[in-house]
Amino acid sequence: MSAPESALVVLVPAAEAVVAPFRARYDPSAALGVPAHLTLLYPFKPPDQITDPVIDGLRRLFAGFAAFDFILNALKRFPRVLYLLPEPAEPFRQLTSAIWQLHPEAPPYGGRHQDVVPHLSLADRADVATLERVEAEFMQGARGRLPIRARASSVTLLENLTGRWQTRLTLPLGPSSQARPGAISPQA
């Protein structure tokens, strides 16, 4: 098993019905318990370093961001990744930047990418032929179901202590921010 890790994400339950069949087959994170999401910061901190003061700082940070609506409509690619691009993308970038400013020791994606592009992955770690096939399948399967309309109203702290990702807590965006303990899913 790898070292315990954590991530800050915006869950997108509105996308599950459309993306779940593809993520289940082509995105390894789905098999590890990660629902449809847009990553704000990964890796974050080791779970044992996410103390009450860290959570309080995140709560205060997210209280300064209003909830916002977005759509998922445009299908894009990175090398080895097929994803849906959120529109607008800027609020996700602003959240990522603010978290990183608060925790400079945790750069997005470990500092591997110059530009952080908000995205909801459909296929990850796939070759070009697979990405082309998944793109064609998705466009056929999603016909009449796009755009996906969603609302970002909270940030979820996910952690992986056992090889499966679980929700540790959810922090709402906006001035009434109060952390809600996450529902812990059973171990698989």
Please, could you describe this protein's structure?
This protein is an alpha+beta fold and 188 residues long. Strand 7 and strand 8 form a beta hairpin. The chain has a single domain, classed as Cyclic Phosphodiesterase, Chain: A (Alpha-Beta Complex). The C terminus is likely disordered.
Largest sheet geometry: 5 strands, antiparallel
State the helical fraction: 25-40%
Tally of separate domains: 1
What is the approximate shape? Answer: globular
CATH homology-level superfamily:
Cyclic phosphodiesterase
CATH architecture: Alpha-Beta Complex
**CATH topology name:** Cyclic Phosphodiesterase, Chain: A
Q: Mean pLDDT score, rounded?
A: 92
Please give the number of β-strands. Answer: 9
Coarse structural class:
alpha+beta
Output the radius of gyration: 16 Å
Order of helices and strands: EHHEHEEHEHEEEE
